[in-house]
């Protein structure tokens, strides 16, 4: 499998190039040359595979054996998921008739980004080892310096994915005092020598701008061979497709349905969405042949995607703080979703390119259309894709948006269900956005119309919001209730030894100084 760009001007990249480069030279994102189909008999053949076995099958369709031999890929997958606390890796929890929660938070940092970043870390290590085979002289070895900015989850998941990897250093910039205390502790208590936390006095956007500046600095780029693990990295999307397949088979098992049988059920995946990486993986799974009915884009008040799926118009919201609304589900507080461009490419190709255009030229045309949309978004703050593109999108996608109040109400109602036969379930605010959106958009959730709602974080990771939701419930002792949910891994985390460099103002030169100093050690 080769990779191409969403802007239509770059082709024939290997998987390794696509993963290590992150962004294509024409400014687009990498996508596979074509979307592979799952084998004709996958519904029976894959039905009882473990998560790891399934991952091997799915990833093999996107990574040629000549690039990563199957045995090596198997070892990479096994190692990546050995750090998860649950034997199913991403277990499916039955909440009530028709509603299932796909728990993606059983990795080291208690949020779904581990599913991808544990794999990406091992992948980077694998590529480096291969490049460095037989090179003894330290100065001659290939090295990668990963630099990233985070408002919380990405940083901790990246650090846990990359810690202690040979020939690789990771610098994570975060805004001082603006990530949650647990997230900050998760990042800064990792003391491996190759992990460097940089706390920058400023905002998340300041951190992001510094990172962008470093990547635009050709000399610096070359000197340290900068790498990125942000949400546009293709390997992250790829790793996430696996749990769509895995949860589908878990669901059939739980319903006692024979895979491939005629019994008709409708399945909607509801996905709390920020940068559109998680749900995009669901789109790939669907295009590969997974029988899903709908993918539901669940947003918080940062609802650019919700508005798109209503109108076909993508329009940045404006206002203070660059248009971002601060919500109880901060990992979804975005203005523009970076991975949305990948879906736009497919929509453009299927519904905006003139039908007369020969097959061989469609990619280039679609790339031009995507490029125009992106230019418009940058210059005018909006673009309109038109009725046909919207209709194409609506074939698979639906969308809902959820307020903070609804988020709290949802957390509360599931932790204290009215129906005595329903077991209490404490969910985090991001998960609640997904559940509430499904309840709003889908008229009837039942044993024929099933919702699998993705849970992207453990409730303890966003305990402030959960506490807010549960506290004023009459007759409920919050402390007692929450104690049963708090993972033992969080014990002692807040007081453990930390390593972090403080930077007194958002200044690229100061960050360069820190990187120079740390890497010359
Ligand atoms: C990153 C994140 C999301 C959003 O996922 P995208 O792939 O960016 O859409 C949702 N919830 C949590 C907890 C996250 O960390």
Can you describe this structure?
It is an enzyme of class 4 (lyase). This is threonine synthase. Its cofactor is pyridoxal 5'-phosphate. There is one protein chain. The chain has 521 residues and is of the alpha/beta class. The strands form 4 sheets. It has a 6-stranded mixed beta sheet, sandwiched between helices. A 5-stranded parallel beta sheet has the order 8-5-6-7-15, sandwiched between helices. 44% of the residues lie in helices and 14% in strands. The chain contains 20 helices and 15 strands. Bound molecules: pyridoxal-5'-phosphate. The site of pyridoxal-5'-phosphate has 17 residues, from helix 11. Pyridoxal-5'-phosphate binds next to helix 11.
Note the main attributes of this structure.
binds pyridoxal-5'-phosphate; 5-stranded parallel β-sheet; threonine synthase; 521 residues; 14% strand; Thr_synth_N; 20 helices; globular; 6-stranded mixed β-sheet; 15 strands; TrpB-like_PALP_sf; threonine synthase activity; alpha/beta; EC 4.2.3.1; single chain
Largest sheet: 6 strands, mixed
Rg value: 22 Å
Query: DSSP helix count?
Result: 20
Mean pLDDT, all residues: 93
The stretches of 5 or more residues where confidence is low (pLDDT under 50) are: none
How would the global form be characterised?
globular
| Strand residue content | 5-15%
What ligands can be seen in this structure? pyridoxal-5'-phosphate
Distance between the termini: 40 Å
What is the share of helical residues? Answer: 40-55%
Helix/strand-derived category reads alpha/beta
